[in-house]
């Protein structure tokens, strides 16, 4: 008896606590085990025992929809998935040579990348704590490789700093830390902080500043070999007769401040931006393909949903095949609807007024990514930049160097823009040709000799002009969360919504998956209680 | 009081006051708008400083209505203002749009967003909003009564929306 109740593994223990005490008890237990704070994921849902013949219709074959289909099928439901596009994955998407990108208004790009090269227009990096996504990648055999997030040797550019000349991140970051340390040291030594810092802490702090800021014996930040051992040398250390290095010259405080390098330094402090980060080998859509392999036979592609109805017996979605023009009605007992709010807001859907209002309260951000194929990896050969990002205050926002095929003598695709806000709108409003020209003109600040010379071709994805979504990610405010969030995620009769927009992890694949797991768990409970 | 009336002045007189604002006043305005940096130069619309994926971009948007339309609005509504879409939903056409007869309608959308359209208080100044609304109503439609900055401020009640960005908004 006792042994039957003894948990065999940590998950067994958590499941037991969860069953006995509910979610909160489980969460507290998980926190005590040092596991939960980083994620709400506690393993795949153990759904089972669906009623015989029970069925679920899933709308959308993005990650949320495909996960719902996979887990509900395992639980015993009969599942069908309708997808508007001719491919699964939704925003989990990679663009390769031979692909065609058709925008609202008809602008068409025929992507000319070499085999093996790709652009990830949507998600592109995976934090190490996105455990739901990592779990399913492993389960479905999606191979992951490191995504180079922080590269000290990449660059920072601002139009009004250093005469518009980009600087190495490491130089700016070391100089910023050094100057701030020196100033704080001065204040401490002058007694300016004596009323707030104890004598003992003051001594520790001064020691810390000396080390952290690479200050000299007089607590000054100066050009010397110690500082150069962080920011780089004028003449690097070598061997033999002329092996001695010479120090580099630090930048003055005003110049360093004009670079705003603290925005990059603090960016890397973001929990979701911290190393280690990952990407799938071969393109982000390997994840969508991994999911699709599990459930492909359940999915009807090229299927545009035109209305969504429900009554006390079931749900129905009318659809049109976008290739053949054939129409039909798909029916089931329940529905998981993962269509983006942009689309759903204009569909004829039979849900409560509160849910309709919630669907209409989610605006979508617009973003633009541009992938430029270059003849050679000049950023590696000439600049010693291997992956990572160079930032600019121009519309393109940044350029980012590929994290695969290092050192290869063949063309590579470099991310030539990741534009948000005003810059994103500006680039999205251009024709595809003008976007490429803008990306070349702006990105040239980093690599002026090579950028145009090595350029072969480019492709762009302007999310606001993707006909199947008309935007990139759902946007919430504190007010809209308070008014609408619970109404959005609640089960409405036989229909439940899921996707990144129905999460507190907006715009991340993890949010789409967590939302889906929560939705299907509630759907299953409802179906069993009915 | 609207979000943009924090410097105490109100009404039409304030519109010009804002255009001629001292650095300090302009700074309060911009902070009230969207935590923009005080980069305004007399005679030019202030550049828009925005948090983005790992930095701040500083992109100059024109003060002129047609230019604002081309730089911002046509990203979604298209160069011909006819919008479009595919998956059962469309970005609405602004050309020949009867809803624009009410000049407060487009102002409200720029200030608060609606449906899939976000608010633009973090990107456009009241001057740019008035300019682009005049352009859209006059050029793509036949509404020629002028929208002023005073109109924009009259409609701007309550705080400007602020995105809840817990996880770097996925950038």
Give a summary of the structure in a few sentences.
Chain A has 530 residues and is α/β, with parallel strands linked by helices. Chain A has 18 helices and 25 strands.
Describe this structure in words.
The complex is a heterodimer of chains A (530) and B (171). In chain A, 35% of the residues lie in helices and 20% in strands. Chain A is α/β, with parallel strands linked by helices and 530 residues long. Chain A has a 5-stranded parallel sheet, with helices on one face. In chain A, a hairpin with a 5-residue loop joins strand 4 (100-102) and strand 5 (108-110). Chain A is globular, with a radius of gyration of 27 Å. Residues 1-8 of chain A have low confidence and may be disordered. Residues 1-46 of chain B have low confidence and may be disordered. Chain B is built from 6 helices and 4 strands. Chain B is mostly helical and 171 residues long. The chains are: A alpha/beta (530), B mainly alpha (171). Chains A and B meet through helix 9, strand 15, helix 11, strand 21 and helix 14 of A and strand 1, strand 2, helix 3, strand 3 and strand 4 of B.
